[in-house]
Amino acid sequence: MEPQFGLKRPDQVKAAPAQGERVPPGQFLSKKFPVLTYGSTPKVDLKSWKIRVFGLVEQEVELNWDQFSKLEWVRMTADFHCVTQWSSLDNTWEGVTFASLVGLAKPLPQANFVMAHCFGNYTTNIPLEVALDEGLLAHRQNGEELGRDHGWPLRLIVPSRYAWKSAKWINGIELMAEDSPGFWEQRGYSNSADPWKEERFWPELRR
What we know:
Layout: E1 7-8, E2 28-29, E3 50-55, E4 61-64, H1 65-69, E5 74-81, E6 86-97, H2 98-103, E7 113-118, E8 123-127, H3 128-134, E9 136-141, E10 144-145, E11 155-157, E12 170-176
Parallel strand pairs: 2-6, 3-12
Antiparallel strand pairs: 1-5, 3-4, 5-6, 6-9, 7-8, 7-12, 9-10, 9-11
């Protein structure tokens, strides 16, 4: 299976575009990777950890860490844009593609949206098409395991959206027919979250 949306194996190299083409409006480059989290960092035990794919699927799937780690892993090099206006370029993530995991459950034709569920009861919503095209369930960043504060053991990475869509500590993927707002979307943040359009908040809050 060929990698999608910048997913690439270690022997593949791709020339990066000019920096000015990669930093969305209103963003500044950061050499650091700040920790921004609502609430406390959950304590996750890999011995009891599971991830579940459910909702509009032919068969629900639930994997423990050993089962998940035996799926095909890939690398993805992508930029990362936080709604608080910092951007980090050329992050290398390692993990399992969203498409690979969700494919095990066989999404039904009426599935159009995803709700990502996480430890700590955090949720965020994404169009299924976007998640299938570019989503990665990452365990490693830039050659090292994710830090606990950055979503260890598993973080959903969605490069084309502001970073609150890249949910930390993910443990569930729900497929839905209709869109539904997640945690920050219910609190005034944009539903679509496109950094190139500066979609930080719902339109009525941007005035």
